[in-house]
Request: fold
Amino acid sequence: MTFQPILPISGYAGWRFLARTEDTQRELAASAPATKRETALFREKIGQVTSADALISDRTLLKVALGAFGLDDDLPNKAFIKKILADDLSDPKALANRLADKRYLEFAKTFGFSEATGPNTRQSGFANRIISAFENRQFEVAVGNKDESLRLALTATRELERIASGQGSENALWFSVMGQPPLRKVFETALGLPTSFGALDIDRQLEVFREKTERSLGNGEISQFSDPEKREDLVRLFLLRSEAQQSAAAVRGSTALTLLQAAPRPQSLLG
Reply:
């Protein structure tokens, strides 16, 4: 049986309910029969996998590996994933280095198939780290199947804690955020940015993100999100604006339907 999260309400109230029940619901998700089978197989076999070819040849292993990075949709794209994993990451022209979505680069680095020292799959604790990430992401996928906004909120909370606590300049931290589509979506919605925003020059986008974040949250830097209260402030703003957008869209749809129903019907050509 597939895990079905309990989400009786949407929006920020739904988020608070999820926060109260999250630990229990995560345990139920991890104990779902399909998930247990997949993670057990991954734990058993991944230490024997030493190449990109070996990983992509086993659908279950590849599913867990991709799922750990939120790349589930790429499961059928074996040639693409092979190139991501096999390219020399020290080469700026490597595909993973050139993609805007930096989850692929993180994926390739984590497995390390192109490293001269050999892959990371044989390291102690590797399987447990990937399985933990996979279980976390699968829980988020299950939540997203019922409420995509709550899934994005979960992703933002998890990823912002990791990025904000990492090394690098504030610019580098911002670019990490901007390079992850789900996290970027949370910021764009929370800050009220239009869909055309992504067409701007990347440096200008960075300036706008900083300015809008400082205006909305009192601080324009990513490092602030190492504080759980700051992450909660962002999630609250995101969910409130997301709910407002959905309500506005529903009103527009209802108005359009009313106008169509009220419009006079054309007279029959036969009069």
The mean pLDDT is 91. The longest helix spans residues 228-262. The chain is about 65% helix and 0% strand. The radius of gyration is 22 Å.
